[in-house]
Every structure is written in structure tokens, then in C-alpha cells.
């Protein structure tokens, strides 16, 4: 039976999640040097176009087609049989296509997150091919394992409410792998370039926070109490994490920064994502407070020590935050919040923590290997990196023949 | 006294600054400029409208020095800015008639350092 309230909320949530991709574009775009901002905006924008088509043609079927195995089935290619009646195994009260388009937005933003790792040095053509292959051979299988009917991690009991493993750990690990094999940006010198437009970073963060209500609360797939729980804990965790990062900086470096507070808020949103439908408010505060500690250590201590150039910290925020969120779900999940979920370690079920740990491990290993192979293939046939000279002039002019800002009128 | 004006690649600014500090040249003014020399400009396209020969971003340094600092300053700029490719930029050395430090009203060589 179609419920009009549920359908309205899921459609609205789909629009909210779509907005997160341009939001991410400004969040990332503000961080790069100004000769490269258009390349970031373009990469995010073209993902919206390319993956929207990919999703309706093959992505949805590969991800959610009911089947046991590496992928979902092929029976829903081109949305064949995905109609306006509910498909009860996924969502019993909304049209099947509403569920499909909501999931489309997740498939769009996930590869967009990886952009942060290879920013300022990847050839546009190679980026496009890499993204389409990655969506097909990494996102779709993993999405199927965790969320699809017949998916083996789902059947194993792994909890992932809105995409801690499928979206954030997945994209974050892919980011680390690409940053490692792509190598550093050239001419970095001793100083990491300063973000060229901090207000854009704040704008992006604000819009991400706003869109994340669709991401998490929409994942209830109904306008109900569970959606409200997800909404409340999402807001709470983001708030706690933003403050937490600011205070860490205040204590350690003497001043709280705008960049740090924004990074904290995003890390909080990442961490609460897998847990949003399973935990209550007090655990959400702990998840938020602690995620900033872990991500701060990852981006300010571990990254410089290891020396990889994850330009915009896609790994440090999304993967580290995502792992913490997935494990925290195993600690703090409670059937009192969601009877369809499970109890976590602190609610008398230590096994759930191990299940979560296993799902995290599988994601890391599979994504790292598959991303490596796809990267090497694209590099072999197209060449991943722009030339040294193009990198110096900037990707906006060399990849798109445009510049973002004029100096003279 | 000389006024040294240098046009360099933007991404070389950090290295040039470092080389200048090593020579104890600490007083510099930096501005952003557009230009091109032998390195042809770039083509931009907006909705199919092509603009050729557009200017590239460069950085302009202005450094006032006493005569004994001219060579070390020039060498430092070259060391920091040279890649060997077209577009590395130029250094202009001009006679400087007078220099006044506003705070103390000192004039001449004493006002430069």
C-alpha cells in the first residue's frame, strides 16, 4: 500500500541528498587553489549527470536486483520492471521508483567523495572513465552485499543504516589508494597550499549538513519515528563533532579555526551515518565528540608522517570517520531504538561489534584491491595524471579552457 | 640604490621568498599581475565563444636594495624561480632616486634596510 506521507518524505529526501553533491563541490572547491576550483565543481557536476544515467541503465539493477552473488541480478536493467508499485522487500509503502531514485543519489555522491584525494592533478577524461568503472565494479557490488536482497553482508547481520560502509569507508579507502599511487601534487614545496576560498568551505559544509537530513532520516524510507530518531541524532552528532574539533584546536594550537569546525561537523555527519537508525541521542553525542579526535589525528599527525597527498582529506575524514561510525554502531546500537536492528556491545551483544568489524574489513580489502586494478587499467589506456605543465597552469584552463575568477574585467 | 622588479611564475613564489630570506633580503612587496611573453597565452572558451591569447597569472616582486645587495638578490630570484621553461619570467633592475621611511623620515640607504 502506497503511503502518501512516506512517498513525499522519500522524494523530498532524494532531493536533499542530490544537493549534497554540489554542496561537496563547494566544500572541496574552496579548499583547492583557485586555478583548480572549476575542475572540482565540474567533476562533481558531471558525476551527477553520468551516474544518474548509469544508475537507471545498469547501476540500480547491479546494486539492488534480488540475487545471491557478486552483483544483484540483471533483470532490472533500464529499470525494466521497476515501476510505481511498492517493492515490499525494500520499502512497502512507497513506489519502487521512489526507492530507486533515493538510492541513485547515494550512488552519485559516493564517487564524488573520492575527488578529494586526486584533486588538482587528474586528467578529466581519465577521471570520467575511472568513475564509471568504479561505480560498476566497486560501488554496485558492495552496495548489493550490504543492502541488496540476497546480499551476503546483509544476511550476515551487518548494520549500516545510511551508508557508513557502502558510502564513506568505501569512498575513503578508494581515496587513500588513489592518493598513494597517483603521488603528490607537484611543486608543493614545504607548504601545503592554503584553501583559496574558506567561505565556500563553510557554504559547502552548511549545505552538506542540510542535505544529510535526507541522507540519514530519509534512509528510514518512511515518515515515521525512526526517521525522526535519525534526524535528531544526525544533527546532534554533527554539532558535537564540530565543537569537539574546534576545542581540540583551541587546546592544541591556541585558536579554533573555521576550517577545523567545518571538518569536524562533516566528520560527525559521516560517523553518525551508519548508526543513525540504531542509536539514541547520548551515544550520538559520544560518536560526534570522539570522531573529531580520530579524524584530527588522521589528518594532522598520521597524514604528514606517512607523506601521502590526500589533497582534501577524503580518507582522513570519510574513511576514518566511517570506520568509527560503523564500529560505534556495533557498540551503541539498541533494539529500543529500532526493533529491526540489533543490540550492540554496550547493550549486551558483543557479537554485533565483531560483525561490524568484519564488514569494515571486507569493505577495506575489496575496495582497496578493486580500486587499485581499475586505477592501473585506466592509467594504462588513458593516463591518469595531467602533464607537469598543465598542473602548473591549473586544471581549469587546461582541462576545461575556463577560469573561475577574472583578475581584470 | 636600485629597485628590482621581477615577474615570476606564481607557484615559484615560495621558493623565491626562501632564497631571498637566505640572502637576508626581507623587505619585499608582492602583487598579482597578468601577462605573457614568449610563452603564449591560453585559449578560453565560454559557451562556444573562443578567446585566444588570454593572459596567464604571474607574480610581481618589488624589492628596493642598496647596491651591494643587487647581485645576491638577483641570484636568489633566479635560483628560486628558474625552471628552464618559457614563462619563467624576467628581472628588471632600475636606478632608485630616493627612498623615505615614513615612520622615521630617514632617507636614502638608511631607509632601505
Oligomeric state: heterodimer
CATH H-level superfamily of chain A: Ammonium transporter AmtB like domains
Overall shape of chain B: it is: elongated
CATH class of chain A: Mainly Alpha
Rg calculated over all Cα atoms of chain B:
17 Å
Question: How far apart lie the N and C ends of chain A?
Answer: 59 Å
Overall geometric form of chain A: globular
**Overall mean confidence score, pLDDT of chain A:** 95
Number of helices of chain B: 3
Number of DSSP helical runs of chain A: 14
Report, as a whole number of angstroms, the end-to-end distance of chain B.
Answer: 11 Å
Count of discrete structural domains of chain A:
1
Could you give the order of the helices and strands of chain B? EHEEEEHEH
Q: State the helicity of chain A in percent bands.
A: 55-70%
SSE ordering of chain A:
HHHHHHHHHHHHHH
CATH topology of chain B: Alpha-Beta Plaits
Report the β-strand fraction of chain A as a percent range: under 5%
Proportion of helical residues of chain B: 10-25%
Percentage of β-strand residues of chain B: 35-45%
> What is the SS-derived class of chain A?
mainly alpha
Structural class of chain B: alpha+beta
Descriptive account of the structure:
The complex is a heterodimer of chains A (409) and B (113). By secondary structure, chain A is an all-alpha fold. Chain A contains 14 helices and no strands. Chain A is globular, with a radius of gyration of 20 Å. Chain A starts with a helix and ends in a 9-residue tail after the last helix. In chain B, β3 and β4 form a beta hairpin. Chain B has three helices and six strands. Helices cover 23% and strands 37% of the residues of chain B. In chain B, α1 (13-22) packs antiparallel against α2. Classes of the chains: A mainly alpha (409), B alpha+beta (113). The A-B interface holds A 35, 187, 189-191, 389, 392-393, 397-398, 401-403, 407-408 and B 9, 11-12, 14-15, 32, 34, 42-46, 56-57, 85.
Amino acid at each position: 500500500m502506497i503511503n502518501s506521507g512516506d512517498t513525499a518524505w522519500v522524494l523530498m529526501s532524494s532531493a536533499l541528498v542530490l544537493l549534497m553533491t554540489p554542496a561537496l563541490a563547494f566544500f572541496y572547491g574552496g579548499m583547492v587553489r583557485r586555478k583548480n576550483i572549476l575542475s572540482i565543481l565540474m567533476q562533481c557536476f558531471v558525476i551527477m549527470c553520468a551516474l544518474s544515467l548509469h544508475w537507471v541503465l545498469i547501476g540500480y539493477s547491479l546494486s539492488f536486483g534480488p540475487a545471491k552473488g557478486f552483483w544483484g541480478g540483471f533483470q532490472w536493467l533500464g529499470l525494466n520492471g521497476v515501476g510505481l508499485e511498492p517493492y515490499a522487500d525494500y520499502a512497502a509503502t512507497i513506489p519502487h521508483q521512489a526507492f530507486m531514485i533515493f538510492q541513485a543519489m547515494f550512488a552519485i555522491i559516493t564517487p564524488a567523495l573520492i575527488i578529494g584525494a586526486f584533486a588538482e592533478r587528474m586528467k578529466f577524461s581519465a577521471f570520467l572513465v575511472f568513475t564509471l568503472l568504479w561505480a560498476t565494479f566497486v560501488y554496485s557490488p558492495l552496495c548489493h552485499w550490504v543492502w541488496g536482497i540476497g546480499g551476503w553482508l546483509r544476511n550476515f547481520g551487518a548494520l549500516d543504516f545510511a551508508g557508513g560502509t557502502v558510502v564513506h569507508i568505501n569512498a575513503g579507502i578508494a581515496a587513500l589508494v588513489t592518493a598513494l599511487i597517483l603521488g603528490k601534487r607537484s611543486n608543493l614545496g614545504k607548504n601545503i597550499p592554503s584553501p583559496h576560498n574558506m567561505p565556500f568551505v563553510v557554504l559547502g559544509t552548511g549545505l552538506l549538513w542540510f542535505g544529510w537530513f535526507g541522507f540519514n532520516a530519509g534512509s528510514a524510507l518512511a515518515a515515521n519515528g525512526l526517521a525522526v530518531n535519525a534526524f535528531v541524532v544526525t544533527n546532534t552528532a554533527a554539532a558535537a563533532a564540530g565543537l569537539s574539533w574546534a576545542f581540540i584546536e583551541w587546546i592544541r594550537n591556541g585558536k579554533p579555526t573555521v576550517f577545523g569546525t567545518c571538518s569536524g561537523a562533516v566528520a560527525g555527519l559521516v560517523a553518525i551515518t551508519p548508526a543513525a537508525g540504531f542509536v539514541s541521542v547520548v551515544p550520538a553525542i559520544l560518536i560526534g565528540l570522539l570522531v573529531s579526535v580520530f579524524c584530527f589525528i588522521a589528518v594532522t599527525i598520521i597524514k604528514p608522517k606517512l607523506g601521502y597527498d590526500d589533497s582534501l582529506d577524503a580518507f582522513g575524514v570519510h574513511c576514518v570517520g566511517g570506520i568509527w561510525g560503523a564500529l560505534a554502531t556495533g557498540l551503541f546500537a539498541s533494539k529500543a531504538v529500532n526493533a529491526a536492528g540489533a543490540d550492540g556491545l554496550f547493550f549486551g551483544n558483543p557479537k554485533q561489534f565483531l560483525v561490524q568489524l568484519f564488514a569494515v574489513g571486507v569493505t577495506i580489502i575489496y575496495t582497496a584491491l578493486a580500486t587499485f586494478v581499475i586505477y592501473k587499467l585506466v592509467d594504462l589506456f588513458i593516463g591518469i595524471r595531467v602533464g607537469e605543465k598543465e598542473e602548473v597552469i591549473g586544471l581549469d584552463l587546461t582541462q576545461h579552457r575556463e577560469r573561475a575568477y577574472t583578475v581584470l574585467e | 640604490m636600485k629597485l628590482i622588479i621581477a615577474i615570476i611564475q606564481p607557484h615559484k613564489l615560495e621558493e623565491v621568498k626562501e632564497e631571498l630570506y637566505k640572502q637576508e633580503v626581507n623587505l619585499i612587496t608582492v602583487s598579482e599581475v597578468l601577462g605573457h611573453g614568449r610563452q603564449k597565452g591560453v585559449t578560453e572558451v565560454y559557451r562556444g565563444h573562443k578567446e585566444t591569447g588570454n593572459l596567464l597569472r604571474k607574480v610581481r616582486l618589488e624589492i628596493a636594495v642598496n647596491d651591494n645587495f643587487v647581485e645576491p638578490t638577483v641570484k636568489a630570484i633566479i635560483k628560486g624561480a628558474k625552471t628552464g621553461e618559457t614563462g619563467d619570467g624576467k628581472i628588471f633592475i632600475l636606478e632608485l632616486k630616493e627612498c623615505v621611511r615614513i615612520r622615521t623620515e630617514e632617507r636614502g640607504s638608511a631607509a632601505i634596510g
